[in-house]
Amino acid sequence: MSVRVGTRGSRLALAQTATVIKKIQSLGIEVEQKIINTQGDEVTGVPLHAIGKQGVFVRALDDAILNNEIDCAVHSMKDIPALRPSGLITSAILPRDSPADFLVYSGSVSAVRIIGTSSTRRRAQLLRHDPDLEIKDLRGNVDTRVKKLSEGQFHAIVLAEAGLSRLGIRIPGERLPPEKFVPTANQGTIAVVSRADPSLIEVLSVLDHSLTRKDVAIERAVMEQIGAGCFTPMGIYCKKGRLIAEVLSLDGKRTERIEKNIGTLEDARAEGTAFRSLASDLIAEAYHTLGISYER
Length: 296
What we know:
The chain has about 300 residues and is an alpha/beta fold. The protein contains eleven helices and 13 strands. About 35% of the residues lie in helices and about 25% in strands. The strands form three sheets. Strands 2-1-3-10-4 form a five-stranded mixed beta sheet, sandwiched between helices. A five-stranded mixed beta sheet has the order 7-6-8-5-9, sandwiched between helices.
């Protein structure tokens, strides 16, 4: 048996895929890698919310699976949207790496005034921490972002700590604690999506990490019930059943937040539904500010 594995072409995506391929090959299975270009990779000059809804890094890979061009695809799980095409399944979720954001800077943190990020969540959390910061939009792969920092376009940039680790990058800065700077749902997690083919699922499920799957499933259940999309400054993080979720205003001045122990997916869905009602004004405000329609 051989498995055709699809991936984006960025250095980080290739590093993540290499990890998965090594695990599959250790089972004595041949692997063929295929690079697929996605809309999120091709359109880099605008913020993510201006391209379209969540999934801009995923749709092309989904189509390649459904068209039988590849058997499975490797994703940062945080990029996978809530609504999934019929016929696809998340066959494996690898043990979670760091869920935290990392603030990259040189010198003294007190001198940091201009920070680059394209994430509305990171923007809002940074402004909550220090309203005097200037947050400028920054997109591109890790190398591009670090290059723009070194050119002096920013005093600091925010990257996922897991991505830096997977790329073997050691760089000055500091970890932002996930309990305060709550990450996006599923951050730090690698997922393998495949056709709902029993033979594929049997092979790939060997890679699955049950504890990580439970935590990220709780995060995803809450995210799906909130239904706020990537336009809203929202963080959702669960560790060993302890859930933290927050929605912020775009300027970081207002926050709705919950901290709960969650035992089941039914509990997670109930909390997500209740939290959507609690944070509905902030969600609607974010959509309106960005010129996107929102149905309560």
